Amino acid sequence: MARYRVVPEKSRLWAEARSSLHPINVETSGLTGAIEAEVTDGQVLLGAPFRVEIDAERLRSGNALVDGELQRRLETRKFPAVAGAVREVVRRDGGLWLLRGELTLHGVGRLTDADVTARVVDDRTIEIEGEKVIDMQDYGLTPPKLLIFRVYPEVKVRARLVAESAG
């Protein structure tokens, strides 16, 4: 297996939470880490273990009120990173992969899995993309409530990792 370095400026993370008033959307770059993979016959073969993380302060919606509350609840000074540690990969049909590992958010690690796709971008670059719905309560986070404004605990998280060969 070869090592691929995640390119922070090309990789993206999206999170969408629902509220009683409107959706709350977060979109950011800045993912870091390294991926174990091999490209054979134009196909990406993923390996494990590998780890990817993002600075929790990068998680912002663009709404100052929402962002202040988000940063306060995430306690970003105490828990500065959100990390995914992949321990096992399972190849599935149709170019899908099942990743199993641990997601750490707000200092709480939980075993989880996610389906992803992996593709070759060019002779040095691969891309991995997938999404997962998480419940913020599983990570010790209480959804905000303020008068008629209520945020629901389920958050859809999507990530696109663009990684370049480190060799």
Q: Rg, please?
A: 17 Å
CATH class assignment: Mainly Beta
- SSE order, one letter for each helix or strand: EEEEEHEEEEEE
Number of strands: 11
Strand order of the largest sheet: 1-4-5-6-7-8-9-11
Helix content: under 10%
Q: What is the arithmetic mean of pLDDT?
A: 93
At the fourth CATH level, what is the homologous superfamily? Answer: Lipid/polyisoprenoid-binding, YceI-like
Distance between the termini: 11 Å
Instruction: Return the domain count.
Output: 1
Please report which band the strand proportion falls in: under 5%, 5-15%, 15-25%, 25-35%, 35-45% or over 45%. over 45%
Gross morphology: elongated
CATH topology tier name: Lipocalin
Query: Number of helical segments?
Result: 1
Which class of secondary structure composition applies to the elements? Answer: mainly beta
How is the biggest beta sheet arranged?
A: 8 strands, antiparallel, barrel
Tell me what the CATH architecture is: Beta Barrel
Low-confidence stretches: none
